[in-house]
Protein 1
Amino acid sequence: MTSRLARHAGLLAVVALACMLPFVLSNFRLFQFTQVYIYAIAILGLNMLTGYNGQFSLGHGAFYAVGAYVSAIMMDRWHVPYGWTIPVAGVICLVVGFLFGLPALRLEGLYLALATFSLALAVPQILKYFEHWTGGSQGIVLSKPKAPLGLPLSPDQWLYFLTLAVLVILFWLGANLLRGRVGRAIVAIRDNHISAEAMGINSALYKSLVFGVSAAYTGVAGALSASVIAFVAPDSFNVFLSITLLIGSVIGGLASISGAIFGAFFIQFVPNWAQDISKAAPWAIFGVFLIVFMYVMPFGIAGAVGRIWIRMTRSRVLQAGRDPAPAHHAHTTT
Amino acid sequence: MTRTRKLLIAVLAVGLAGLIPALAAQTVVGVTATEIKIGNTNPYSGPASAYGTIGKVIGAYFKKVNDEGGINGRKINYITYDDGYSPPKTVEMVRKLVEQDQVAFVFQTLGTPTNSAIHKYVNQEKVPHLFVATGATKWNDPKNFPWTMGFQPNYQTEGRVYAAHVLKNHPDAKVGILYQNDDYGKDYLKGFEDGLGEAAKKMIVLKQSHEVTDPTIDSQIVNLKNSGATVFFNITIPKFAVQAIKKSHDIGWKPVHYLNNVSSSLATVLKPAGLEASRGLITALYMKEVTDPQWKNDKGFQDWVAFMKKYYPEGALDDQANGYGYNVAILVAHTLRQCGNDLSRENIIRQAANLKNVELPLLLPGIKVNTSPTDHAPIEQEQLARFDGERWVTFGELFDAFRKQ
């Protein structure tokens, strides 16, 4: 009980700290943190699918793109306020993801990874094809939203708070989903779908639903990115985005909620550090970082943090019979 | 409760009010008595990384400038970041340059979508956004975007060049056009139609478009042939240009064939299409082709080779992009010299919009850079060249797209 309380207090402290950042950091840093939160939402979506449910996706950049374009087209064509476009993008991606999840049921493991990869390859080209709506390869230029109700916030500060709010809501929803009955069913399918079905879990339905929810999270992230970057173009959503999200998911810690945030920090800042270290071969440096992280933290950053936490509070955790560390959830079959 | 809340809000508001003036932009940023900071983004990785050499050759040229004492005693501190040709990354990197590194201006940011993503931002922040590396026409819009300036001839300019040539040499021609159905194709088409003016309605007998996703354009070529067109303006990217040249050759259609500069490469278009089929094609050039032997004894070319060997030995001497970057780096150095000691952002853009008859070593002879407060398109002259089966041979006089014919 005390450990649960301590955890809630810790979470509150983190959120409070996050709320103070806009008054301490420069607008540029805030913009970077906003991007971290956006990535974190997308990675949590991917984590649900890959980490918790064991379905591989190399194509989540496609859902991110769909979310961004839904938001951008609504703002650009129909002048819908950006706030409304975010849930709409989520719902559309939910439907798209669910529909894609149905045929994906027939594909397992690497085959599913390839199928989703083809999605990531196809979407930028498809976007160019519907030029009338999407602006083709030139994309759509948007206006950066200003703070509403005359709040004395710069656009960067406002977008930071908006993104943080969406992040907190989606993480809270995600945590409730994954830690409850549904979450146990999702994990059971990953661990052994035959015994899961024997226990009465409708594996096909759950798998498609997870696909949909996962896509919805990533789509919301994409919609937020459209407002934050104030521009969408097919080149913003190339294959590398999908791979970046997967990197964030694995490095942060698969099947971990907090891991999504760690992973987001990694994919936002490590490429920049790599570039600071070596201008000539930043991606080689990035590769070294990746390997070191995977070697030192085989269960991702969240797993490593969790282990340290266990070591520090071993007796208390044992008493509470509850493990705050996600390490033992980590999906290690590959 | 409400009282404390009010107090809190008041404290917050005061705190913010204190912050805001501190954020207000100074006019002289990124300049000290000994240094000028210049920002740039280039795709050193990702799908367009072949262009990354432009960012490097510019850095090499600034090293040369610094070795020779800098500009008015100031060394150039050139900060260039990789954006991987990804617009969100460009936004992040340009914001880093402007807000954190505090550069005086950004220049030669590469790519049309990438520059589109920062277009509004740099203009809101009033940061000069000079000589961008893209052929789109929208960079020349000083009324709405007074801080942005293009560099190379844009697609509309080039379209006008062909139109001028058609009007002069084939006034009675029937014109057929094939264009890619997007901004790029329409940009060219608009320049060409504007250039023909009144005559456009009478002369253009058929316009055919294609999508970039189409597998082939054979049927469009057949339609164009059947329309009886005697002049063919071919606005396609290399893949389709190859098909168009081949197909029209195969079906025995021999119009006067104008091929947009985008597809003028010997290696990626003319050779695959067949050198014989390519003979007689007309395109517009503005730079000396670095692989063309006719420039072997040209001073500008020789200077470039000497520079490359000394400052950028790992750069390829047969890569036109290295010539391009050299030209544009010289232009920015020229602009800064023209600024004298006033390196405020206002003066930098003012001088960039006041370039008169500047010559660059690798521009074709006679082509000069000219800008004005209402003209943010530095290079607007081009010269036509005809393919003789081996190489492009320039002919005729220079075309100035906006000179009254």
Protein 2
Amino acid sequence: MDSTSDPTPRDLFQRFYVRVAPLLRGYIRRVCGDPALADDIFQESFLRFLRTVEWGAPVHQQKAFIFKIASRLIIDNARRIRADPLDAAERREDPEAGRVAGHEALEPDMKSLFEALKPRDRSLLWLAYVEGYSHEEIAGMTGLNARSIRVLLFRLRGSFAASLRRKGYGLEERS
Amino acid sequence: MNKAACPLEEKARQSFAAGGGDPDLVRHAVRCPVCRDVLAVSDWMLRFRDLTLEQLEVEEPLPAPGALWDLARAGRTLDLKAARKALKPIEFWRKISWVIAAAGGSALVLLEFNKIKSFLASIPGFDAIAEAMRKTAEAGAASPVQQLVLPATLGLVGILLLILVTSFRRPASG
């Protein structure tokens, strides 16, 4: 390491962003379901993150922190939309949202299978099986306790694996 | 046999999420029904994640990090909503002070009218102006509306001066 000056917080943020932003956006988009709302949550997550981040903390911790912010925002929005069905209906009928959904190149089966789950279950599956967070970390992100996360993931693993089998998604050869 | 839990489940899940490199765990997963489910879900989720990220990368570029950084900084230095909220009590008392000043000024003028009149009379040239106005009115050269124009203009100029003086702001410190 022969760099003469320490990176500025702006540089540190750019590095962090390049590394984490695509993953966070994928998570929010798939758990949230609504592209417009997902974009809002994505931006708000980074703004809140930047207000409170400690650049001296390890990157893993910073990543967990921004996933926690995003998870809380998704939960809050899910509650708000459920409490206001008119708003939810308007969002579904948003022509812009429909246009984006119409261009989905993802296997429709995969998308519908995942969207059939409740937002909380989608979030738990993603955090556990994609990001590989521990029960304790997921508990911190979602505001539930670790024991509940263990039980919820246990049930979710069983039911989702059964759904996958029914849909014909078997294990592929692993090299 | 319905095996409900496996001590390696958590380890297997985290290992698969990190890339699934541990061959021992994969071999174990083939034999263990719990870890087989974990592996199946993990495989599917990672494939779903990859497809999602590929699709988003092609269709919707990420916002520039610099824009988010600037937005966050602007939000930190100038929170308009918070500033408005903080200034609300000051704004209220400012309005009250204007009303009190106007009422007090009017009362003072009414109570000390004679003194003000004699003070004005002592100003050199004021008598001449007053005389000229009186003569103009007596000659019928001006209608009552026209007679009001001069005092109204003087009053307006006074108000404008007052606004100019009170709206003068000191340069921000720092």
